[in-house]
Amino acid sequence: MANCEDSVPVKAKDYINQLNDYYAKKNPVSGNELFNGKPLFWKKLDGFEKAEQKLMMTIILDTYNRILSHMQNETEDENVQKSFIEVKKYLNNLKIHYFPEKHKDLKKHVNEVMALKETDPVVQRKALLELMTVYNEASKLKDPPVHTHRRRRQAKGARKQRSQS
C-alpha cells in the first residue's frame, strides 16, 4: 500500500509540518485526545462507492478550508498565516483539478434540504404533496435485492455421470 503522503507536494508537506509544529507548541493536546481512534475525516469515506467518496471529499476539503481559515484569522504570526494561505491554495487546487464542479451544486442542494424547517406548515404541506413522487423515485434508486438462497452441491458421482452422458 502506498504511503498516504505520496501525492502531497513537498512544499505543501513543509507548510503542513510547520503548522503542526507551531500548534503542537502553542496548544499542546494530549495523545489520548488526538489519537483516540476516532478520526475526524478519514474513516468517513469507508463503505462508499467512488462517486460518493468524491462528493464526501469535496465536503471534507471545504471543511478543511473553513477550519484553516478560522485558525489563520486567530493567529498574529505572519509566518503561520503565510503557511495557512499556501496550504489552502494547495487544497483548493486539488479540489478544482480532481473533483467536478457538479459536486458543488449537489452539496448546495444537500444543504438546502438539510436546512428545511420541519415545523414550518408550508414545508410540511409541500412535503406531503411531493411524497408519492419522491417515494417512487427512491424505489427506482434502491439496490437490487441480494438473493440469500444457497445452491445445492451435487455429489461428485452425479456430475461425472452427467458429463459422460
Automatic annotation (TrEMBL):
BP term (GO), one: immune response
Localization (cell): Secreted
Record keyword Secreted present: yes
Primary localization: secreted
Source organism, top-level taxon: Eukaryota
GO CC terms: extracellular space
Coiled-coil portions: none
One of the record's GO molecular function terms: type II interferon receptor binding
Pfam families reported in the protein's UniProt record: IFN-gamma
Record's keyword terms, sorted: Cytokine, Glycoprotein, Secreted
Keyword Heme annotated: no
Region of interest called Disordered, as start-end residue ranges on this chain: 140-165
Entries under SUPFAM superfamilies matching the protein: 4-helical cytokines
Biased composition regions of type Basic residues, renumbered to the chain: 147-165
Family: Belongs to the type II (or gamma) interferon family.
Annotated protein name in UniProt: Interferon gamma 1
Taxonomic source organism: Astyanax mexicanus
